[in-house]
TrEMBL record:
GO terms under biological process: tyrosine biosynthetic process
All copies of domain ACT, residue ranges: 296-364
Molecular function terms, GO-annotated: NAD+ binding; prephenate dehydrogenase (NAD+) activity; prephenate dehydrogenase (NADP+) activity
Catalysed conversion reaction: prephenate + NAD(+) = 3-(4-hydroxyphenyl)pyruvate + CO2 + NADH
Pathway where it operates: Amino-acid biosynthesis; L-tyrosine biosynthesis; (4-hydroxyphenyl)pyruvate from prephenate (NAD(+) route): step 1/1
Chain ranges of the Prephenate/arogenate dehydrogenase domain: 3-291
Name of the protein: Prephenate dehydrogenase
Pfam families: PDH_C, PDH_N
Length: 364
């Protein structure tokens, strides 16, 4: 039996979902766009089986409908969809970065036999559009679902089964709680990144050295300032109350630093860094890649061409099965620059012994 999945808004997130679902047994993916120019691109990019400008055509007989449009357009899409004849049992879900407002609107629109389950994959990028879509975007990320209490468990489980193709971990969260949490760990950081870049720009635009010298720290903390302005306008407006309260707390945090500096309180500054180090060190590491591996080695390798090939060859010659290999771009959380992953602990131990005898520095 074939399942039809309709995706409205085939950009970064919609396109990535398409890549995860298209070609899976029994699944057909249809993409909808409001712009004629986008249809060919989504087909060329291979994220959907078919593309249409017609909402009716996309929604007809769909088993699942994903709304992947900007947050500010979700309500309008919901209203239009609920006015169409939808397949009984159809599940409508969204990927919007806020959940309370869309859940409320969906509640007011309910149609018999059609279920709305709010969704939000906690993975993304500062890039947007279908060209930025990736099969691996959701792998090992958390994917929040916010079903209202009247959604039958059967429907929830059906969506959960479909989303297994994303390889994300599904987590059920209350919509209001969701908005409070993502306000703090996603929306406020975007505001701060933008404010930081704008502060440097506003006060120093005529001194090119600021741009030249902007190194790792500035770039790390401001990557997300390059995010799509329209997408973020909608997200921030939709989470207004939560953000206003967080920004007041932020003012307090900054005022604390002003006081520490004015008082030349070195211990206080050190303590602030120690506290942040500890909390941040406890964040679970996110891993992306085709293979979920269990046993990892980190090794330091000298930076010269061919070294990675040599290590892979040395392991291969010794019949040690390597599952995955990753160069670690950001060294902040882990020692070593190369991660070697093994399915079996014994295999990892053999690799460690072998690499040690070859003189590498190895961390388990
Ligand atoms: N970017 C992220 O990191 C991220 C992560 C998780 C969730 N989200 C959420 O996913 C949704 C889509 O974001 P994205 O990053 O994929 O954005 P995107 O710009 O890459 O994609 C949005 C898509 O919606 C389409 N669209 C349809 N109607 C539109 C309209 N009236 N105005 C503008 N665009 C319209 C666009 O053509 C585009 O294909 C948003 O609700 C966002 O909050 C984003
Ligand atoms: O990695 C990024 O670039 C993101 O901004 C992703 C991010 C986040 O803040 O973590 C952004 C918005 C989403 O709704 C979910 C994830």
């Amino acid at each position: 039996m074939t399942m039809k999945v309709a995706i409205f808004g085939v950009g970064l997130i919609g396109g990535s979902l398409g890549l995860c679902l298209k070609g899976k047994p029994g699944i057909t993916v249809v993409g909808h766009s409001h712009r004629p120019g986008s249809l060919n691109r989504m087909i060329e990019r291979g994220v959907v089986d078919a593309a249409t400008l017609s909402m009716e055509e996309a929604a007809a007989d769909a088993d699942f409908i994903f709304l992947c449009v900007p947050v500010g357009n979700l309500e309008e899409y919901l209203e239009k969809l609920y006015a169409l004849p939808l397949k009984p049992g159809c599940i409508i879900t969204d990927v919007g970065s806020t959940k309370a407002s869309v859940m409320e609107r969906a509640r007011s629109l309910s149609a018999s036999g059609v279920y709305f389950i709010g969704g939000h994959p906690m993975a993304g990028s500062e890039r947007s559009g279908v060209d930025a879509a990736s099969t691996l975007l959701f792998e090992n990320a958390y994917y929040v679902l916010t079903p209202s209490p009247d959604v039958p468990e059967e429907a929830y489980l059906r969506l959960e089964r479909l989303l297994a193709h994303t390889r994300a971990q599904i987590v059920r969260v209350d919509a209001v709680m969701h908005d409070r949490i993502v306000g703090a760990i996603s929306h406020l950081p975007h505001i701060i990144a933008v404010a930081l870049v704008n502060q440097v720009c506003d006060y120093n635009a005529d001194n090119g050295l600021y741009r030249t010298l902007a190194a790792g720290g500035f770039r790390d903390i401001t990557r997300i300032a390059s995010s799509d302005p329209l997408i973020w306008r909608d997200i921030l407006l939709s989470n207004q109350e939560v953000l206003l309260s967080l920004l007041r707390d932020w003012n307090e945090e900054i005022a604390g630093f002003i006081r520490l500096l004015e008082a030349q309180d070195g211990d206080g500054i050190k303590q602030a860094f120690e506290k942040a180090n500890q909390f941040r060190g406890e964040l679970p590491e996110r891993r992306k890649g085709a293979i979920t591996s269990l046993f990892d080695l980190h090794i330091d390798v000298p930076d010269h061409p061919g070294i990675i090939g040599q290590i892979a060859t040395q392991l291969g010659v010794n019949q040690i099965n390597l599952s995955n290999m990753q160069i670690i771009e950001s060294r902040e959380d882990v020692p070593g620059v190369l991660r070697l992953s093994f399915r079996q602990e014994a295999e990892m131990e053999r690799a460690k012994d072998h690499l040690l005898t070859l003189g590498y520095t190895v961390y388990v």
